[in-house]
Amino acid sequence: MISVLFAVLTALSNGAASVLQRRAALNVPAGEAMRLSLIGHLLRQRVWLCGIGLVIVAAVCQAVALATGPIAVVQPIFVIELPATLLLAGVVMRARVPRTVWYGVAAVTAGLALGMAAAAPVGGRDSVPGADWIPALVVTGLFEAALIVAALGTGGNARAALLGLAAACGYALTAALMKDAMAKLDEGGVTALLSAWQLYATAAAGVGALFLLQNALHSGTLVAVQPMLTLGDALISVTYGVTLFGEHLRTGWWLLPQLAGVALIAVGCVVLARSPLATGSPAPAPRVR
Fold it and tell me: How far apart are CA 289 and CA 45, in angstroms?
C-alpha cells in the first residue's frame, strides 16, 4: 500500500510538472529545439522552475515507491498521469472540463485497475547482478538512438511523439537504476549508496530524459507527448522488471483481461486526445515573463 500511495503521488506531481513545463515551452523560440540553450530560456521562467520543483517531489516519492514495491507495480500506476495532466491543464487554462474527458479518465483508470489485477506482479529481487546491466544498457542505448534519429528526420507532433517515447525510455531506465541504487542503501547504508555506480547513472539517465522531454514538449502538442510518455514508461518499466529484477506476471488466460485493460487505456487515451484540453482549443494561457 505504501508503494501504491507514493506511486500515485508521483503520477500527480509529474502530471502537474508536465502542464507547467509545457506552458513554459510555448515561450521558447522555435530555433532553440535540440540545443542546450533551450534550457537557458526555460531557466528564466518561474513557471518552469515550479515544474522542476514538482519533478523533484516526484523523484522522492518514486524512490520511496520503488524501495517498497516491485517496479512492475509502481511504474504502470503512472498511466494515471495522462488524465491527471489534462484535468490540471483545465484548471491552469481556466477551461471547463468536458464530459468526454471524464469518460477518458474513467476508461484509463478502469483499464489500469483491470490490467494490474489480472497481471498481479509479484516476486523479483531487489538488486540486479552487475553483468545483467550490460545487455540492458546496450539495447536501451540503441533504442534511444533510433528514436532520436527518427525524430530529427521529422517535425511537429511526429517529432514530439518520438521524443516523448525516448523520454519515457529514459525515465523507465531511471526507475530501474533507482530501484537498484535503493537496494544498495538497504544492504550497506549511505556509504554503499554513494559508492554505487547506479546512483550516478540514475542522475545521468534522469537528466537525459528531462532534456528529451523538454524538446518533446517544445516540438508539438501535449497530447502527442503525454500518451507516449506515460504508456511508454509503464510498458518499458514492466519489461525491466521482468528481465532485470525477475518479477513475475500472470500468463495463460490471464492475458485476456490484461489485454482488455490495455485496450481500455488505449481507448481512454484516444478520447482524451480528442478533448479540447489536449488539442489546445481553449484560449492560450497568458505569456509568462
Answer: 7
CB of 234 within 8 A of CB of 58? no
Q: For residue 232, give the C-alpha cell.
A: 511508454
d(CA 165, CA 171) in angstroms, rounded, equals 10
Residues 244 and 34: their CA atoms lie apart, in Å, by 31
Contact 269, 106 (CB under 8 A): no
Write the CB contacts of 191 (distance below 8 Å, at least 6 apart in sequence).
none
- Three-state SS string over 161-191 comes to HHHHHHHHHHHHHHHHHHHHHHHHHHHHHHH
Q: How far apart are CA 286 and CA 158, in angstroms?
A: 26
- What's the predicted TM-score (pTM) here? 0.76
Per-10-residue mean pLDDT, the chain, length 289: 85 80 63 57 73 85 85 83 76 73 87 88 80 93 95 88 93 91 83 88 91 85 77 87 88 89 83 69 36
Neighbouring residues of 59: CB distance < 8 A, sequence distance ≥ 6: 206
The answer to whether the CB of 208 falls within 8 A of the CB of 220 is: no
**pLDDT the model gives residue 281:** 47
**Closest by alpha carbon to 269, among 239, 224, 236?**
224
